[in-house]
Amino acid sequence: MFQSVGLICAALLSAVAAATIERVEHDYFRYHPMPEITDWMWLMVKDHPDLVTMVDYGRTHENRTISLLKIGLNTGLKKKAVWMDCGIHAQEWIAPAFCQYFVRQILQASKTDPKMELMMKNLDFYVTPVFNVDGYVYSWKDNTTRLWRKNRTPGPPPCSCYGTDLNRNFDANWGTVGVSSDCCSQIHCGTAPMSEPETQFLTYFVGSRKDDFLCFLTIHSYGQLLLVPYGHPNFTAHNYAELMEVGTAAAGAIEKVHGKIYRVGSSPEILYANSGSSRDWAHMLGIPMTFTFELRDNGTFGFELPEDQIQPTCEEAYSGALHIITYAHDKAFSAAAAVWTVLLAAGTTAVSLM
Predict the structure, then answer these.
(1) Global confidence as pTM
(2) To pair with 283 at 20 to 30 A between CA atoms, which of 47, 332, 337, 350?
(3) Is 294 a catalytic residue?
């Protein structure tokens, strides 16, 4: 009898221990390999079933799934949207860390902040924590692969190198400046615009919903920059002045958090000329608020930003991203409210004249 009781107690203790292990909190301030990020995505769905769904929208060359979290209140109506992707460049580990932090913050804020609660009703947030899944997995293989940048598509024969820079592969002035046709180069732009499966899937997913998106944010490192379209020096965004105004205000919000200075401008102005970026493609598609975030630092650690800088980097970048998203939301819905007011007034006048 005592033995049976002992076995039951042991089983109960094991069950409790197992449950405890399953509910270990996700550590937002360390870098996670891909399986842990996938587990975290499912945890977000489980913990917030009223707001979060997981969407698989593509496959990589090595047949891995490209997934995003769709976050927002299901109102039954067609909604405006915000896009955010992280991890286009595999070695930029701080970018996926930021996407995870961003998701946590907007979900927490939706419970306490009336403004975020409103945005959850009006907007859907589409967040891809790791876009270049093959490259990211490869960057975790060992110390020799830590700084891998590209995807893992084999080069065209007779080239024996692997990978295309996905942020040079979009159909936006493709192959013109800041790229290389050498498949061994870090900035190899591919064999044609959208030659890569990852680029094709993103292009289809966003392109088929282009009228929904108010904002397109793509997260990179490093350099502490907010980049506006375009990467080609011969082209200027039609709303360049507005983008610079919004970006400068976002940089001000970033600086208030930990004092870090982010410069704002087009890539040729403050970094280097390039073509085929997702930011430029999104703006050419018609999405008005398009920005590239280049997170910390300025080169001391570069792509190997220490884990003790994850928290401050995410905190300041969140403030900047939230400013841009709030601006895009308020502009769209204030305009809609103004039109509705005019229509109501016209309707009232028409009724009163009858």
Answers:
(1) 0.89
(2) 337
(3) yes
| 129 neighbors 87 (Cβ within 8 angstroms) | yes
Q: Output the CA–CA distances (angstroms, integers) from residue 103 to 98, 106, 128, 257, 302, in the order listed.
A: 9, 5, 10, 19, 24
Is 286 exposed, middle or buried (CB count within 10 Å of its CB: 0-12, 13-18, 19+)?
Answer: exposed
3-state SS of the chain is CHHHHHHHHHHHHHHHHHHHHHCCCCCCCCCCCHHHHHHHHHHHHHHCCCCEEEEEEEECCCCCEEEEEEECCCCCCCCEEEEEEECCCCCCCHHHHHHHHHHHHHHHHHHHCHHHHHHHHHEEEEEECCCCHHHHHHHCCCCCCCCCCCCCCECCCCCCCECCCHHHCCCCCCCCCCCECCCCCCCECCCCCCCCHHHHHHHHHHHCCCCCEEEEEEEEECCCEEEECCCCCCCCCCCHHHHHHHHHHHHHHHHHHHCCCCEEEEHHHHCCCCCCCHHHHHHHHCCCEEEEEEECCCCCCCCCCCHHHHHHHHHHHHHHHHHHHHHHHHHHHHHHHHHHHHHHHHHHHHHHHC
Give 269's contacts (C-beta < 8 A, 6+ positions apart).
none
Q: List per-residue pLDDT tens for the chain, 354 residues long.
A: 444 444 444 444 444 444 443 557 899 999 999 999 999 999 999 999 999 999 999 999 999 999 999 999 999 999 999 999 999 999 999 999 999 999 999 999 999 999 999 999 999 999 999 999 999 999 999 999 999 999 999 999 999 999 999 999 999 999 999 999 999 999 999 999 999 999 999 999 999 999 999 999 999 999 999 999 999 999 999 999 999 999 999 999 999 999 999 999 999 999 999 999 999 999 999 999 999 999 999 999 999 999 999 999 999 999 999 999 999 999 999 866 554 444 444 554 433 333
CA gyration radius for the chain? 23
Catalytic residue among 196, 198, 294, 316: 294
